[in-house]
Amino acid sequence: MGDTKDLSIGEVIMLLRDDFPDVSVSKIRFLESQGLIDPDRTSSGYRQFDREDLARLRFILQQQRDHFLPLKVIKSKLTLWERGEEPGLEPGERPPSLDDAGEPLDEASLLKRSGLTKKGLAELTAVGLVSPIGDSNVYAPETAVVAAEAKRLIDLGLEPRHLRSIKLSANRESDLLAQLAAPLIKATNPDARSKARDVLEEGAESIRAMHRSLLALELRQHLT
Questions:
Q1: CA 130, CA 101: separation in Å to the nearest integer?
Q2: How far apart are CA 22 and CA 26, in angstroms?
Q3: Of 40, 152, 161, 214, whose CA is between 20 and 30 Å from 124?
Q4: 178: how many CB neighbours lie within 10 A of its CB?
Q5: Residue 1 in 3-state DSSP?
Q6: Residue ranges making up the domain that contains 64
Q7: How many domains does the chain have?
Q8: Taking Cα atoms as reference points, which of 50, 60, 37, 61 lies closest to residue 5?
């Protein structure tokens, strides 16, 4: 692949910036220092990227942007990606792990990632769709996806009050799965707690698949 190693770090940033506005030289250097990428070097010591390096960077940045995964989780996914077994997830396709959802977000980070204004965030908070953790000004990492998708729906013409039904539906589904796993949750031994997580995650996956299919079925009827 020697003839394809023709991208400097500046050229890589230009190719990535439309999709990842926050990408920078320091960020790419940090990812290299953490062992997620390993570009070649010229005889003068300059980094030299090929098309596979570029695709690898896109995968890493997408996992950070769309799923807010910590680098150690992304690093484990890279092994699957290299074998072609991890195609990359679309936003909202899979939930974060119940064990490791990622780093909490402050308000400024949440606004930046979601595209909401402070007023928009306040409106979503007023209807109960998002809320900070306790009395802090910090939000769970999943809130960024909720806020970003809420903004998309608002841009399509819905109002924040219309979105409350989505939160209520999630609450009901959570209560249903909590009842299912209740005996395991109440148990004190580690094996039972681990099994409870498995039940909750598997149940959530099934509900999400059903919801996606049922919604598609209902929407299709509007077009016939």
A1: 16
A2: 11
A3: 214
A4: 14
A5: coil
A6: 2-82
A7: 2
A8: 50
